[in-house]
Amino acid sequence: MKQRQEGLRTKAEKRVHRIDRLTIWLASAVFFLIALCGHFAEAQFSGPALGITSEVNPPITITTDPAILFPVGRDPYLGVGDLITIRLYGNQDYTPTARVNLDGTVQLPLIGNVMLNDLTLHQAQDLIAQKLIAAGMFRDPQVSIGVTDSPNQIATLMGEVHGIVPIIGQRRLFDVLAAAGGGGGGGAGPTAVATGGGGLPSTASHVITINRYGSAEPIVIDLGTDPAKSALINIPIFPRDTIIVPRVGVIYLLGAFKTQGAIPLQQNSPITLMKVAALAGGPGFEGRFNDLRIIRTTGITRQVVRVDISKVINGKEPDPVLQAEDIVFLPTSPMKAALKNGGVGTLLGIVSILIVAIQQ
To answer: 144 near 154, Cβ under 8 Å?
Structure first.
């Protein structure tokens, strides 16, 4: 009998060891498959997440240099696809017409291929004159170039206002914004654009960026909200300029508000905590009114400001002005939340517990 029990115990121990070995083997196999297929799992992501050092709300420097905003003169640049006509002063025989090829060159009589891509008209005229002199054809030719047809004499708009606007000669910023159909209602003049009426939709930011062809640094313009100052920002737009109109910033509401989510900023007036609370339906009963937090990130620096929203509502504290990407968080009081969710029944239950505790 004893030997039989020891045999059963031995079989049970072997079975346990076998199960343990099987478990270890399965775990090893799983880890091996994970290690083997880890690089395949990375393919499901479109790109790496932003790191902690990534800037949020980077500082913006508005361009104020008049020489950059209102240049005295700017020659158009030649580009691929331009159809040009060349004339020599006092010579009616040399009048070739040619189109700039995909490689940026132009085939001209007497001098062959000439690289004209990304040259201004004056630079191209000087280069052709030098080529004619070097070929021994003319002593001092006076070359003039006319652009007959060009796919490059345009300004491109991207973002909340998008489109392609022809630039013949020189046009102004407000004219280009209005021509692109940036908004509805109101006129299309500078006043309408500056006030967000006819040139910009309500979702567009009033801080726009202009990438000027041939310039190393972008031009940053703040359209503002004052029509009287529109002449100071209605800058000239040249061919190949790219105008980027970003989306207006938003403010995020979390916690014990009637409605949570993102609220867009209004460009024509500053938005304050009370305005945002009103748009969200007001703070809920369950919120900890004396512990509202405004979380603001500038660059990589995060700042948390605590505000007593009840004092702001009663006019005892100033109404904070919010900025784009601010997070307004109103924590929830567990007791108030229980009362709100349970209603009168929960309140009566709490009162009954208190009465029993007092009687004891």
So the answer is: no
In the chain the first and final C-alpha atoms are separated, in Å, by 64
Q: What span, in angstroms and rounded, lies between the C-alpha atoms of 266 and 280?
A: 15
Instruction: For the chain, give percent helix, strand, coil, nearest 5.
Output: 35, 25, 40
CB 104 within 8 A of CB 118: yes
The number of beta carbons lying within 10 Å of the beta carbon of residue 303 is 9
Contacts of 65 (CB under 8 A, 6+ apart): none
- What's the angle, vertex CA 240, arms to CA 71 and CA 230, rounded to 5? 50
Please check whether residue 106 is in contact with residue 49, taking contact to mean a CB–CB distance below 8 angstroms. no
Tell me the one-letter amino acid at 91: N
Predicted TM-score of the model (pTM): 0.60
Residue among 230, 248, 225, 239 nearest 189 (CA): 230
Q: Please, which residues bridge with residue 294 across strands?
A: 305, 328
- 206-257 pLDDT, tens digit per residue, is 889 999 988 888 999 988 777 777 888 899 999 989 999 988 888 999 998 9
Grouping H, G, I as helix, E, B as strand and the rest as coil, residue 302 is strand
CA angle 153, 103, 148 (to 5 degrees): 35
To which residue do tokens 């995909």 refer?
102
